[in-house]
Amino acid sequence: MAFSITPLPYDDTALAPAVSAQTLSFHHGKHHQAYIDKTNAAIEGTDLADKSMEEVIAAARGSNQGLFNNSAQSWNHGFYWHSMAADGGSASDELAAMIDQAFGSADELVKQLQDRGAGHFASGWVWLAEKDGKLSIEETHDGDTLADSDFNPLLTIDVWEHAYYLDHQNARPAYLKAVTEGKLNWAFASENLARGTTWAYPA
Ligand code: MN
Description:
The chain is mainly alpha-helical. Helix content is 48%, strand content 11%. The chain has helices at residues 21-43, 53-60, 65-83, 93-103, 106-119, 165-168, 172-180, 186-195; strands spanning 124-131, 134-141, 152-158. It has a three-stranded antiparallel beta sheet with strand order 2-1-3. Residues 27, 31, 77, 158, 160, 162-163 line the site of manganese (II) ion.
């Protein structure tokens, strides 16, 4: 069965001015849709056609770069839309305690997310992730993903230029500041931590 694009879990103006409706119209409506369409075209009629997105990613990793890029990007964007919210809320007690343990404070985590995102060379993704009961910030390059890794991803931020250029031009730090200071979905991160297994792309 073909994959569908994950609908935006909020109104297209919900994230402005950090991420505008115009950016979402291109980023969700064009970029993410293209990754989905290319994934579907590549798996149609193959033995991957009835697999989950995570199974497609794992099967393509290291053997089919085109399908890997498109399926991983399909997953990453679905996860990214849920990683943001109009009102980011707050972390669960469990997550808050782990943030304090790993980073010292929530403010320090936000600062490190901004620094890692700003320092990431060229296109990629910055993640808050959990493994063996410990939190860390991870980076993946280009279309790479944590979806089929040993990490349980809790949140991600897209640092490809298409994520911020219309709103912030070349100022990636301004985008990162705007997203991380009020638009990260801490309830989603808390759910991902509590579940203990990696978020599944909707079948
Ligand atoms: Mn993107």
